[in-house]
Amino acid sequence: MANLLPLLTEKKRKLESYQPLKKEVIKNLEDWLRVELTYSSNAIEGNTLSRIETAEVIEKGVSAIISGKALKDQLEAVNHVKAIEFIKLLAKKRKSHIKIVENDINAIHKIILTGISDDWAGRYRETEIFIKGTNVQLPLPNKIPYLMGKFTQWLSTQKETHPVRVAADAHYKLVSIHPYIDGNGRAARLLMNLVLIINGYPMAIIRNEERIQYLNALELAQIKEDIQPFYHLIEVSADRSLDAYINAVEGKPILPTFTENLMTDDKLLKPEIYAEFLKIGELAKETGETVHTLRYWTKEGLLEVTKYTEGGYQLYSPSMIKRAKEIRRLQSEQRLTLAEIKNLLKN
Fold it and tell me: Taking burial as the number of CB atoms within 10 A of a residue's CB, which of 106, 141, 166, 335 is the most buried?
């Protein structure tokens, strides 16, 4: 995967060369980003509000009449916007990410859960929790105060690291500690953006359409210690926001920055490129295997995902048809285990 950090530094310098930015241009862009970030961050966690509904709630508060939607979903939108405004103010106060303290992170979380789970807003969990659908092992609750202390101590030492990498690491480390009973993902993404804002970068948005990629990248980092796909996703997100700001000040459209490009392993591709690849259901049809089996083989590293669609669907190269058939043959004819097959395929 390409290292985008030098490119991000260059684009940030370009944006800074346009200072001072026109207030009306930036206000319109930031109002749009505020809605998009709130929608995407909440939707990743299962919030059912659409983009339009999120904008309506942000404008009118919980008094907005959103038919058939839970009050909790509306409160999450209101709280998230308040948390965005909080981190903007906090960024001016802290001025450097090395000065972020534990109470700052808890204050962000408190805003997220206020009115939703007041007893646990800004408080560390006291029970063991699990991430559904994964084998990720989270720290026991009695370890959290120590781990959070170590985390903020680590953050205070990150003076020379590129700020986008610090933001990505802060996100990853916080969500891996999972210190709260709920709202960990939103807190981690807001902390990431706090680091970016402090360092003069626009807020980065992990789009809801990238949800599967995002969760897979986190799991890959947590279970197999391969954090590069996660780094790349964050860097691409930061790159999109920089492009949006540059386009805005240059009088160009900003929406294509967020809607036309799609994440892949090492670059951004447009939708027409997907035509030659297979969704997992199509791969199952071609190989005679079940979708469940193919997902398991993918998770174990026997099959490779080549790209992702806008909706987060995995896409496989046609070469994976032959690979899947070979895996089944080695199982049935030579009685090899999956671990043995994986080693064999590597050679």
Answer: 166
Res 266: pLDDT: 36
The domain spans of the chain are: 5-264, 271-346
Q: Can you give the pTM of this predicted structure?
A: 0.76
| Rounded Cα gap, residues 29 and 243, in angstroms | 12
Tens-digit pLDDT profile for residues 186-216: 999 999 999 999 999 999 999 988 888 898 8
In 204-270 the beta strands, taken as DSSP E runs, fall at 262-263, 268-269
Per this entry, what is the length of the chain? 347
At 2 the pLDDT is 61
Q: Does domain 5-264 have CATH number 1.10.3290.10?
A: yes
Which range (60-69, 148-157, 160-169, 246-255) has the least confidence?
Answer: 60-69
CB 87 within 8 A of CB 197: yes
| Alpha-carbon gap, residue 111 to 40, rounded angstroms | 18
Question: Tell me, what DSSP letter sits at residue 279?
Answer: E
φ, ψ of residue 134 in degrees (nearest 5): -135, 165
Cβ neighbours around 1 below 10 Å, total: 14
Q: Which two tokens stand for residue 42?
A: 């909440």
**Fold observed for domain 271-346:** Multidrug-efflux Transporter Regulator; Chain: A; Domain 2 (1.10.1660)
Give the pLDDT score at 251: 87
Closest CA to 155 of 121, 114, 192, 206: 192
- Residue 46 in tokens: 């299962």
Residues serving a catalytic function are: 178
